[in-house]
Design goal:
The longest helix has 40 residues. The chain starts with a helix and ends with a helix. Helices cover 86% and strands 0% of the residues. By secondary structure, it is mainly α. The chain has 2 domains: 39 residues; 219 residues, no CATH class.
């Protein structure tokens, strides 16, 4: 019995040690990003290329998803509001929902699946094929070239995609509203932004910045620490998506609570 209890304590101790080792590695990886970000030289060309890959190449998926979200949300809200004769509130309701919640969260989750997995798989494949080691031999800083550019591009492009997603979602809502109430585009957007404050817009941008940084740093960390050959690349891509989404939901809860203190 004593032997079993000692074995269990040993296993628990090993798991706790591994957990704190992972936390330390992730923290060091993140701190190094901020150090490399402010030191020269800066890989401007690679940064612009990553902005293109993350931003432009995500537009089609963001457009489709946001448009459907706005259209379906409006369609589902109409029966409940019509019972109270409040269908005129639909533009304002959709505007608040899209700007405050749906646009940042939907954009982050889509990009976590598309961008996070792409970054994790790309860097992971470079890791297992020893391309990163070759960059070090060639006197190129692989962390600055691969990690800093991708994390910075992700951090900056997710808020841009969020604003675009909010606009497209409102256009989807307008299509449904115009079909039923014959509302003009000017009247729709006036009602949609009537209750929106600068705090709502700023808070959405801040949340998107946090989500973008999370997606970038998690994808890069998982890819940069890939092992076990090509099988590890798939695991890194999957882990990047799962961990990014998990952290995004945690950040959503925390940031919403903090923002509500200022309302």
């Amino acid at each position: 019995m004593d032997t079993d209890s000692k074995a269990k304590k040993y296993l628990i101790g090993r798991k706790v040690d591994r957990f704190f080792i992972k936390v330390h590695k992730a923290s060091s990886f993140t701190i190094r990003y901020f150090k490399e970000l402010v030191t020269s030289p800066h890989e401007v060309g690679e940064f612009v290329q990553q902005c293109y890959n993350i931003g432009y190449r995500s537009l089609s998926l963001i457009t489709l998803t946001s448009f459907i979200t706005g259209y379906v949300f409006t369609k589902q809200s109409r029966p409940s509001l019509s019972e109270f004769g409040a269908t005129s509130w639909i533009p304002s309701l959709v505007g608040i929902a899209m700007i405050r919640a749906l646009a940042p969260l939907v954009t982050a989750l889509i990009c976590a699946g598309k961008v996070g997995s792409s970054i994790g798989a790309e860097i992971g494949s470079m890791k297992v094929t020893e391309q990163i080691d070759a960059m070090e031999v060639s006197a190129v800083n692989p962390y600055k070239y691969l990690i800093v550019t991708r994390v910075t591009a992700s951090t900056l492009m997710i808020p841009v995609l969020m604003m675009y997603a909010g606009f497209v979602g409102l256009m989807g809502s307008f299509l449904n509203v115009s079909q039923n109430e014959l509302t003009t585009l000017t009247a729709f957007f006036h009602n949609a932004f009537e209750k929106i404050t600068m705090l709502d817009i700023v808070s959405s941008v801040i949340r998107s910045l946090a989500y973008g940084f999370t997606i970038g740093i998690v994808g890069c960390y998982k890819g940069y620490n890939t092992s076990q050959g090509t099988q590890g690349v798939g695991k890194a891509a999957n882990a990047a998506v799962v961990a990014s989404m998990f952290l995004i939901f945690i950040e959503e809860v925390i940031l919403v609570q903090v923002i509500n203190w200022f309302r």
